[in-house]
Amino acid sequence: MQFGSGLFTMINSIAKSWFTKVSEFLVVMEVSKIMKTYQDINKETIDRWVEEGWEWGKPTSHDAYISAKKMENGKFFSYSYMSGST
Predict the structure, then answer these.
(1) Quick check: 64 and 82 in contact, CB under 8 A?
(2) pLDDT in tens, 13-50
């Protein structure tokens, strides 16, 4: 009878340990769904700035890109100059 009691105690201990680890894991998974990473916050911030008309979030035309790459007249141009909205 002593052997069975010890075995039960050992199995009970292993089961408690396993359930504790599983529940800790599930809690971490739920918290990670709620908490935002800094990458999520940065993405949302930049997306909001673009929606509000942030100059450096506006797309550049291919011609403006080529012009800037060639650095016409040896000068750097602002986005406003390259997009023709001076």
Answers:
(1) yes
(2) 888 888 788 888 888 777 777 778 889 889 999 999 99
